[in-house]
Each structure stands twice: as structure tokens, then as C-alpha cells.
TrEMBL record:
This is RimK family alpha-L-glutamate ligase. InterPro entries: ATP-grasp, ATP-grasp_RimK-type, ATP_grasp_subdomain_1, Rimk_N, Rp_bS6_RimK/Lys_biosynth_LsyX. Residues 302-323 are annotated as: Disordered. It comes from Corallococcus carmarthensis. Its cofactor is Mn(2+); Mg(2+). Keywords: ATP-binding, Ligase, Magnesium, Manganese, Metal-binding, Nucleotide-binding, Protein biosynthesis. It holds the Pfam family Rimk_N. GO terms for cellular component: cytoplasm. Coiled coil: none annotated. One of its GO terms (biological process) is translation. It comes from the Bacteria. GO terms for molecular function: ATP binding; metal ion binding; ribosomal S6-glutamic acid ligase activity.
Amino acid sequence: MKITVLSRSASISSTRRIVEAGRARGHRVRVLNPLRVQMHLDGGSQAILYDRKKLTPTDVVIPRIALSISTYGLAVVNQFGLARVPLVNHAQAIAQSRNKMRALQLLSAHGIDIPATVMARDAAHLKEMVGLVGGVPVLVKLLQGQEKHGVMVCESLQSLEAALEAVLGLGHNLVMQEYVRSTGQDVRVLVVGGEAIAGVLRKPRPGRLSHTLNRGARLEALALSPSQRATAEKVARLVGLEVAAVDILDVQGHPKVFEVNSSPALLEMEAATGMDLATPIILRAEALVAGAAPVWSAALETPQALPPPPGRKGVVKVNAPRS
């Protein structure tokens, strides 16, 4: 089988692990930088080129699109999809996971519990809404931008006000989210092909409130509870991701989903769990080539359930979302 991995560099640890796993199973694996891919359309035909030369066919594509090149990278992924090449993560699902507010809206509409979240365009309005997310400290997240700069923790109203004025003044949109204190566990679940295959507990460095892999959090292997497993699998299915890291704040056995990632880092989770997490991705690619139903198609078929308007009982009938 011929596998194409879309990644900025073959030396990136997660990309390297996927390449190693694919070759270990006897496949031909190539890594293409999405920025060196050109696309040609003329209304009657289409072509995909690499460094201005027509690409040889591939059996399946595994996207590892960096946030910094999302717009162009997702166009490349979509072009392969239009050519009917099986995709391990469809462009639409990746884009949906990266729009933090839309992803949270989708999950909330389908009964997935999330931390209290507010969004407004004015700094004064956001400051007034702090009470709706449980008061300070709060998480402030940019809706777009580099992941390592996309989350900050504001521990006081003064620091929140300064952060809001700076961020909104630069024209960025953001959401403000409940911060679950030490009573909660920060859990990352890796889901492949609709199945939760590994979980880790993330512990921030001493003195840090932030829950992010990019700020030195220590990972520990975690035996997933049935509720954590079921929640992560449902989230990946709703968003439509074949490969997803679902980030959960578990408070006394009650999971709240705060983020979904489409290109999760593998090496750190492998080190913590002692598991091979790249081979399951290759196995899913094999299944898609063999004709397995893609997760994203199930997501597109899931009906959007909305509550009836207040005060008008029995007027609007909606179908319950599939679980």
C-alpha cells in the first residue's frame, strides 16, 4: 500500500513514528510538505502537483497539518478528498476541531458536557460575564492562532482585564472558559477509528495552572473509566475525526470536554503509556483503503438537535441525536 503523510517535515517526532509504523507493516510511505503541493483546477479536471511535478497516485493520505498553515494545508487535504483518496482525517473535520467555539457548540448541542464557556466581542462584556464561568481564575483561549500561544490563565480580574484589552485590541476573537481547580483531573484520550485506545493524566509543573502539553505538563498513564472512554469516542464521532485527542476535565467521575485536537503528539503519550500508538493509525488507514466506513460520513449524517423555543411547549419536534 502507498501511504502519503502530509507534514511540514519527516523529522517531526509524530510524523517519524507514523512513517516507521507504516514501513514496519510493509507499506511504501512518503512525507509531503503541504506548502510544496500545488493544485490545478479548470472546471473539467483537477490535478495535484508537488514542486510543480504531477504526483504519482497514493492509496491513502494521513494529514498532519500544522496550525500555522491550516488554510492552505486543509485545501490540500480537501483536494485529495475530491480525488476520492481515503483520508485519515477529513478536511472538514480538522477545520471543525480547530474552531474552538464551533466545536464546543456542536458538542453542547449533542449533550456533551463542557466547562462553562462564554464568548463576546467586547472586553467590558467579557469581564462582566466572569461570574457565568465560576469566577477567576479563568481560561482565556484564542479562537485561532498558534496552539502554544492560544491559552492563558488569568488569576485575577486585573490580569483578566489587561489580557482582554490586549488580545481584543489586536483583533483576535477569544472565548473565556471555566477553570476546574485541583478537584479535577486533566485527561487526554487518544481515539483512532472511533475507539479510545489510550489515556494519560496530565499534571502541570509545580506553580503552573495551565493544562497544556506545550508548557511542560507531566504525563502519566491512565486506565480510562467507562465514562471517559464513552465520552471521548462520542466526541470524535461527532466532530468526524478518525484520529483525535480529546481533552477532558474529569471532576469526581464526571467528564467535561474542553478541547479536541486533530494532530495529537504521539511520542509523549507513547513514553507515558509504553504503547505503540502509531501502528493503530496505520491499521485504520488500511481499513479505510479496504472500504471501511469513514468516521466523518457518520458525523455528517448525525442530526443537529436544538431545544424548542422557550414558552412554546409541544410546538417544535426534534429528533434526538444518535449516540
